[in-house]
Amino acid sequence: MEDNKIVDLYWARNELAIHESDRKYGRMLTSLSFSLLSSREDAEECVNDTYLDAWGAMPTARPTYLGAFLSKITRRISIDRFRAEHREKRGGMGAIVEELTEAIPDRGTPAEEYENGRLAEALNRFLRSQSPQRRAIFVRRYFYSQPVSQIAVALKLGESKVKVTLHRMREALRKELEAQDLL
Amino acid sequence: MKNQKEEKAILLFREIGEMDDRLIQEAMLYRPKTSAFSHVLLIAACLVFSLMLSVGAFLITHRNVKDENVGHTSPGDGSATEQTLDAILLAQSDAQAASADDIEFFGEKSYVVWQRTDTEEIYVSRALTSYEVEYLTSEISNGTQIEAGKSEPICRVWIVLGDGTALSPHLKPSDGNVGVGELFDYHAELIPSDAFNSKISDILN
Fold it and tell me: Of A19, A104, A160, B104, which one has the greatest count of Cβ atoms within 10 A?
C-alpha cells in the first residue's frame, strides 16, 4: 500500500493503518531499533510504541515520507530506552556514539545549539553538500545504525571503502562544526 | 574532556535523528548505478550466450541427438529457473532437518537456510565464506519478477548474515524486506537468477 493511503487510514482513525505500517515498515523499524538496543524484545516494544506515537501524532501531522517519519519515532524511542536502561557501552548505540566523538571539535564550551535547531540545520546543510552515495552511507550508519557489513552489501561496496568514507565524513563534519562554532 | 565529548556525541546522534525527511528517504532509496561499461559487458555476454545457444542447437539438430535424461523441468512454462532452485534444494536428500532454534542469527557466520513448505522442515547449509555471501546477496537484485498467478516456490529460502539479519532471494532487496533474528514468512516476488541458483548448487554440493 502506498504511503499516502496508509496516512489516510491514520487520519480516518482506521486501525488498519497500524497493520499496513507494520507490513510495509515493520522489519525495517525492528532492525533500526535492534541495532541500537541489541535486544529483540526491546526492539519489538519500541516498534509497537512507534505505531502508538504515530497514531497519536496523526491526524495533526501529515508526513510525506511515512518511512522516514516512523523511523524518526522509532529511533527517538529506542535512544530514550537505551539511555534509561544504561546498557553497556560497547554494543548497540554506545559503539556508534563512540565513533561520532571523532566528529566533535576539541572545545570545552557547553553546547546548547542543538536546542534551537542550529545543529540540525548544519547537519542538513552538510549532508546536502555530499554526493548521494556518501549521504546514503552516512544516513544508513548514523541514522539507521546499520552495521558496516550491511551497508557494504546494500550499496555494493567493499567494507573498507565504507569505513574510509565514514572516517572522512566524520572529519569533514568536525571541520564544518568547528567553522560554524557549533558543539 | 572525554566525557564531555561523549555527551556532545550523544547530542549529535540525537540531532541526526531530526534531519530532513527527504534526505532520509533519498538515502534509503539510493542504489548504486550500474556503469555504462557494465552494460556493455552484459550485452556482450548475452550475445556470446545467444551465439553459444544457437551453435548448440544447430549441432544437436544435425546430429539428431535425443537426450532421454531431461525431465526435471518442463521447458517453456516460464518457471524453469524457479523449479531449478526448488529442484536443487529438494535434491538435498542427505541434509539433516534442523530446528528454527538451532539457527544462529547472531553468531557472525552466514548460512543459507531453506524450509520446505509442504513438510515445514528447515535445513541449514554449511557456513558461507564472505565471498559467497557477497556473491549471493548481490545476485538477489538480479532476480526476475514472478508473473501474476504463478504458483509459489516449494521452498522458502533465506540468507542469514550472522549479524541478526536475514534476506530472501525471493524478495526485492529493499530495507523493508530484511528480517531480524527470525525466518520471516513471505510471498515470493522474484525468481532468483541462474547465477544465484548455480552458486547455491555449488555450496550445497
Answer: A104
